[in-house]
UniProtKB/TrEMBL annotation:
<dbReference type="GO" id="GO:0016020">
    <property type="term" value="C:membrane"/>
</dbReference>
<feature type="domain" description="Receptor ligand binding region">
    <location>
        <begin position="2"/>
        <end position="230"/>
    </location>
</feature>
<feature type="domain" description="Solute-binding protein family 3/N-terminal">
    <location>
        <begin position="311"/>
        <end position="391"/>
    </location>
</feature>
<dbReference type="Pfam" id="PF00497">
    <property type="entry name" value="SBP_bac_3"/>
</dbReference>
<dbReference type="Pfam" id="PF01094">
    <property type="entry name" value="ANF_receptor"/>
</dbReference>
<keyword id="KW-0472">Membrane</keyword>
<dbReference type="InterPro" id="IPR015683">
    <property type="entry name" value="Ionotropic_Glu_rcpt"/>
</dbReference>
<dbReference type="InterPro" id="IPR028082">
    <property type="entry name" value="Peripla_BP_I"/>
</dbReference>
<keyword id="KW-0812">Transmembrane</keyword>
<dbReference type="InterPro" id="IPR001638">
    <property type="entry name" value="Solute-binding_3/MltF_N"/>
</dbReference>
<keyword id="KW-1133">Transmembrane helix</keyword>
<protein>
    <submittedName>
        <fullName>Glutamate receptor 2.1-like isoform X1</fullName>
    </submittedName>
</protein>
<dbReference type="InterPro" id="IPR001828">
    <property type="entry name" value="ANF_lig-bd_rcpt"/>
</dbReference>
Length: 392
């Protein structure tokens, strides 16, 4: 898994460490910090495309995300086999981007903050949109997000607390005296009074019921899981800290950790089946598999030269080799290369340096251990005798 984020201070120091900690079991193999000042993301994306991981978790601004997905689209990184997951910083802005951006993000799985609009919230949104449109007519009809409502409620909480504390009086006195000390933020009785007033806040705000419990905000965050398809996105379901994944916000027992309950996901490139998320690096050459051109036991290995450029092989040894590859989470392209000498000659003359692996009916001996490493044997070592059966 690769973590892509915007190279700004508040992201790198506050959000990314927590995100990386939450994803520690997912084996993050690379972290890429993008800057809005970069002229092109070409080098960074080429580096990511050359790696085995095809799972990308993206946390940056919508402006940077548009540039990122534009470049990824050009490089074929939004096709079959890739998985893109975006955080609320991007997913929460999908309602405000045009159709060309949605086209670039087909198959993206997004997480966004969710809250059920209240009557006063809907009224606030209408008033906000009217005023915003009158002041910025060319910007379109923008809609504030949950973070805006929480910030609005926080300002109200501070304002209410200041009217009840001595801080407002002190500030007015300083303003009247024309003496505003930037270091006024000293821990004084007035400041503690303001802090206590904020912690005692209890009112119905735009984001919901606003109050504190154990010095922490009591706001229960619900996250909506969406899937970018067509001209917009599909709402798959929700995730709650105490309940896990669910199709609705109704309380239920247990903690559902699997997304299967949300139904099928449309992935990049069009498939409904879950991509492996890991493939062979694009820069990697074919695995060179040495096979003996002549064998004593065809049941173990038979080599056929189909053309000047292609060799095929079959038999028990090849079947075992292919079964091992099936257990990999990514594809590993290979080619069979025949050799005409004996196993000992191949090893003793250091010819194995021309190959990556050897597949055959090779016996494991102490002398050969000096040159190569062996996989597990097909059967346990031992001696056996073959004798004719005599009837009594």
């Amino acid at each position: 898994m690769s973590l892509i984020y915007e190279d700004v201070e508040y992201t790198a120091t506050s959000i990314i460490p927590h995100l990386a900690d939450a994803l520690q079991d997912a084996d993050i193999d690379s972290r890429v910090a993008l800057s809005s000042y970069d002229s092109s993301f070409s080098k960074e994306l080429e580096m990511l495309r050359s790696r085995q991981s095809r799972v990308f978790v993206v946390h940056n601004s919508i402006q940077l995300a548009i540039r990122l997905f534009t470049e990824a689209y050009k490089k074929g990184m939004t096709t079959d086999g890739y998985i893109w997951i975006t955080t609320d910083a991007i997913t929460g802005k999908l309602d405000h981007v045009n159709s060309s951006v949605i086209t670039l993000m087909q198959g993206v799985l997004g997480v966004k903050n969710y809250f059920k609009p209240r009557a006063q919230t809907s009224d606030f949104i209408k008033r906000f949109q009217r005023r915003f449109h009158s002041e910025y007519p060319k910007e379109g009809r923008r809609k504030p997000q949950l973070s805006s409502f929480i910030a609005y409620d926080a300002i109200w909480a501070i304002a209410k607390a200041m009217t009840k504390s001595k801080v407002s009086g002190e500030l007015k006195k300083m303003q009247n005296d024309s003496v505003i000390d930037p270091l006024f933020v000293e821990i004084s009785e007035e400041v503690w009074s303001l802090l206590d007033g904020i912690k005692q806040s209890n009112f119905s705000g735009l984001s919901g019921e606003f109050f504190f419990k154990d010095n922490k905000s009591s706001h229960v965050y619900a996250f909506q899981i969406v899937n970018v398809v067509g001209k917009s996105y599909r709402e798959l379901g929700f995730w709650l800290p105490d309940n896990g994944f669910s199709k609705s916000l109704k309380r239920k027992e247990g903690n559902e950790t699997s997304m299967k309950i949300l139904g099928q996901v449309y992935w990049p490139g069009g498939p409904w089946s879950v991509p492996k998320g890991c493939v062979s690096p694009t820069s990697e050459k074919l695995l060179k598999v040495a096979v003996p051109a002549k064998t004593v036991f065809p049941e173990f290995l038979t080599v056929k030269k189909e053309s000047d450029y292609k060799t095929s092989a079959e038999g028990f040894s090849i079947n075992v080799f292919k079964k091992v590859l099936d257990h990999f989470s990514y594809s590993l392209p290979y080619e069979f290369i025949p050799f005409n000498c004996s196993y000992d000659s191949l090893l003793e003359h250091n010819q194995m340096r021309n190959y990556d692996i050897l597949v055959g009916d090779t016996s494991i001996s102490s002398g050969r251990y000096n040159y190569v490493e062996f996989s597990q044997p097909y059967t346990a070592s031992g001696l056996a005798m073959v004798v004719p059966v005599k009837s009594d």
